[in-house]
Queue: 4 jobs
Job 1
Amino acid sequence: MKKHINPFKTLALLALMAAPFLGRASDGDNIEKKKLINKSYTVGPDDRLSIENSFGNVIITTWDKNEIQVSVEIGVRAPSDEKAQLMLDQIKVTDNQGGQEISFKTDIGSMGKGKEKGNWSKNEDSRKFYVDYKIVMPARNPLRVENSFGKISVPDFSGIVSLTSKFGELSTGKLANAKLVHVEFGKAEIGILNNADVILKFNSKSNVAGLGGNSKVHIEFCSQVNLTIDNTVSDLAVFESYSNIHLKAPDNLSAQFDIHTNFGNFKNTTEFNIAEDNDDDTSGPKFDKDYSGSAGSGAAKIKIKSSFGNVRLASIHDKSADNEDAHDEDQDDEKGGDKVNL
């Protein structure tokens, strides 16, 4: 009998390792101090904004002006005025403008180390310290954001974007030029992507509303990933290990499928003509399987490689597939509570 490593047990262990970062402020932390930073820049279409932050949120909104506005709020809570000021002084935000890049970087000093590493919480009402960015910028300008222990929110965006989220949440609208979308130890609600490189690792449920153009998706140790294939896709490669993937496709998709599983399962509930490639060797158990087939005229190329995971391909109109996913999640909950909501 095949014995698969349960990714959710790994998620549970890693969540426990991250737990010290999720402490809440105590009742005695009654002194609050804040510091505000506001910057404004006139930009051309090629000027890039780069943000490196931790222990806070990065919220992007867009407008039609040739201007980027960055507002940073640094907040601390402590039992005394002296302690609060000491904490506030440790947190630095540096900014720089050079060439065609505007950059901001957060340095929390010792706040994320030693005794202070428990001083941040996902609950915004109980955070002992935080660094929140609110940004207004043109949707066409290049954008790079790296954030840990917080949220990233990006609306519909036409410029080149690179987004990295760790121990947090990522939500986006439609990204026309997604150079990189990288989420680890968190969750993601992602809009339609075009020409994207997507990396999802150690996440709870993640959704991608559409994959178009030439895109690659790397998935490791994720409890549930829902990917919708867009009709604009030309080349899609999905590499999965120790994860559950639900692929949804439009009924009029035109694509060729090349699928390989190793100690995994593939299920096709569409009308697409996809079948297992049988070989002459029928002796003993078979751990590697290959499937191929086409939809429509087979214009696009879709390659899927799965190891120790489950891949399901269904129509975007197939509601029964959604019900099966919910049933599978309930079964996971019954197996000792291995499922983790990060």
Job 2
Amino acid sequence: VSLLLNQLMIMSLSLLLWLIQLQFLQLQLMYSQLLLILHHPILLLPLLILLLLVLLPLQKSVLELHHPLLYYN
């Protein structure tokens, strides 16, 4: 029984190590993608456009809230 328990422990530990390695690989992948984007700023363009599309309407609505007279004249 103790041998079986030992084997189970070893298997679970190896599984845990494998999961940690997988997480590390994912982190490396994210990091390399980030580096790629930083080295090629043109890749940031779609992200910036998306940000603008989201932020501009928000800014307009905030302005309307603060200065309603600006938009009703």
Job 3
Amino acid sequence: MAIGNKLRQARENLSLTLEDIESTTKIRRKYLEALENEQFGILPGRVYARCFLNTYARFLGLNTKEIIQKYDRIFPPETDGETETAGPGRLKPKKSYTTPKIDTCDRLTANRDAHLVAQIRKALAEKKKQPWWERPVIRLLVKLR
């Protein structure tokens, strides 16, 4: 039996309306209708389709694993690495985000750290008798915070 028919039949056997299910599951009515009519292209994406199917089937007391497996057989996830199918007629862009590595940032950080270490050493070397809160090291560390 098809997924949509199975969902509709289970809902009707329980004498429930789509409004009843919408208020309980918080799945919008148009998505519930799409699930029952197997119009998966209306759904926002593959993840949502699987989640809505799981929630709806669990609410109706159906075997969620079986429903999800049927959906996956009809709309298998693409594994070519280029695109991921969100549902019939929907494609997501390839997920490959690369951040360019800029070594100048590393050098700037290293230079800044070396400069801070030099300032702290200089402040520690000063042998003035001052209360701890007025010492240059403390002021420097507070400033860095």
Job 4
Amino acid sequence: MPIRRNRSKLMSPTTLTLLASQTLNCSLPTIHNSLMVSYNSNNLTLPTEATTPITLQLKTIASGSTFNLTYIQVIGLAKTNYDIFAKHKNDICRKFEHVLIQLFNSLKRSLSLIENLTQILHHFDYSPEVHANGYRTLILSHGHACLRTLEILKQVKAKHIARLHRRIHSLKLLQELKSWTKTLKVMEHMLSLAVGLVDCSDKHSLFTDFSQIPSNIELDYYKMVAYDSKHLFGRTCGFQFNRSMEILLTIILASFAAYYDTYNRSKTAAAASLATSSKYILFPEQRARKCAEILRNCDYLFCQSFWNLLEHDSIKKGSRYIAPNVTVSKYFQIGPEPIEINSIIVPPPTGPSSMQSKQLVNIKLLSHEIREGMDKLSLQRADLEGSPKIVLPMSDQLLMHVHGGGFIATSSATHEVYLKPWALGLEIPIVSVDYSLAPEYPFPRAIEECFYAYAWILQNASKLGWTGKTILFAGDSAGGNLITVVTIKAIEAGLRKPDAIVCFYTPFLLRYSMSPSRLMAMMDPLLNTNFLWRCVAAYAGIQCDGESHNDELSSTRVSTDNRFDEMQASNSKRLSPNQQVLDNKNKPPSKESSTIDLHHDRLTQIVGPRQLCILRKLSESKLLDHPHMSPLCVSDEILRQFPTTYLIPCARGKLISYCKSSLKVKFSFKDPFIDDNIEFARRLRSLNVPHQMTIVDELPHGYLDFGSVARDVGENNARVIHMLQNIVRQSHSNDIADLTSALTITS
């Protein structure tokens, strides 16, 4: 049954009565609270009469963290500044009045929505001890936006008497205040949609299929994605992360906008355009409009092209001065012969592609020193970055790595910025798989290549300087999805499974569905909502008119979905009963055709015909429900056999580690995939699978790649190496005692 909030009884709230005669004795106009906020809230009129006293009920929204005082201060300062500006009749003061009115009204509505959400937050947590889910992330982000707004209001109050009559100073502060007010209004829309999602959710699941969401909520969501993102990429870009990441994300977005200006020119000219991106840094409003336009209208080919700039020779040469050298760095190909292990045949990859089937698989071996057996790979001088000091015995542990990049971009080379420090810190061989990328090689090609590489590693352990004793998997983002699927395939085939898997900010559910953390994807400069769905569509082989590379690609993609119809049918029978929300059988009856046509017309006006085509095909695709695409849909029978799992998403707040059994998940609270990790960890816990979940503080999706350019990320990556060292030691001794029901909180 859907979750219903008890509006008459709150759970231990802290009641803050703001009296009209004191803090809020204001003549600011009010707007009635509404769960679905109108998009015409810009059309506010100046006040005509005083309001009545307002009582706001707030409560702690996260363990050890509350913004109650921040909200009081923001509202109080908004009132104070409004009273001062109301005494003056010049144009600047009137503009300040208007912005302060919008700020005040938006906060009123937002606090009402937050009050509703705080009553049900605990239903969606991983456990009573670990307070983490997308709803908490959204509320915390709103609080941090208010905190930054408070800084601007303090500057306005401090400077209005002496300096605000000077136009140059006043306009700058006015623009800052406008930007933060617009950001808070966008977050108000997000909170409103989150409240609507709660009413649609079943069994306390964080995910809701779009077919279960009322059409008005769906329309409001796409309006927000289409029209409001421009308010998030300007002066307030990246506010939800730490300050060093804010600067870096601003530079990335400026480069993104500048690259678009020279798109379809030579790669050298396009790369050179990044050096002329200063105008998009100096003029944030221009950057915001440009980036919003690009993300709304471009296809996945542009996004793929931008991120593949990292593969440009000049950038690769520069990265060599950033990443430390390792002794062995050998890139080679394996295949195409079938591999037999204990009577189990693993064929070479044959998945659909836009080109002639390429049966060879590219892998890279990284090692801090040469080990016995590596000479069988015929190491050349070019494979050695340093002079070998000694030939070490074979290692008992080996790490197989699969890189991220949305299934469509980057390679093992672009991820060496953290892989080489791993090789030096862990002192074990690392094999990174360079799988073929979508859309040229759509699902299941990448999975087949990674699974084939895994079988080859098992069969050729000695060539890699490995005894064959312990093998660990690690992957970030799309790579985390792939290593999880390889684990599933190994269990299904009866092949040896890895001893542990480490998943960094991994998407475990690629189905066309909504969750609170997915709402926040529109705020993410690196994994924006539009980019996210285009990546999924490219990986699934979904295309619309005008996007095909060639006719062969079109024909193979159509057959991809058909190929897995039978697999999906058999899988749906094996789904866990407590995962019914993930089962298509529970979808409600289809709408009347006339209603659908009207809804279709409205969506077309909002997102455009091409984007709507992608969204429609995603919603109709059965492929996205298959556990080889969405590991969260895997059966209990398979998941129960999982090795120790480590989940590592990203978050806002203190770094929290929860250890249980032997699974580790690492993610970010500000990650669009935090809900994936929470739901996956819940299933692991319900099946008593050893696991650990670590929530990383204030860093964005993809943070591993930024360790060399952002100090905070570099410090975190050093902690990641320490964590991996512990995993290696535990796997070596088979000691998982410290992974049993332990909760630690560190700064």
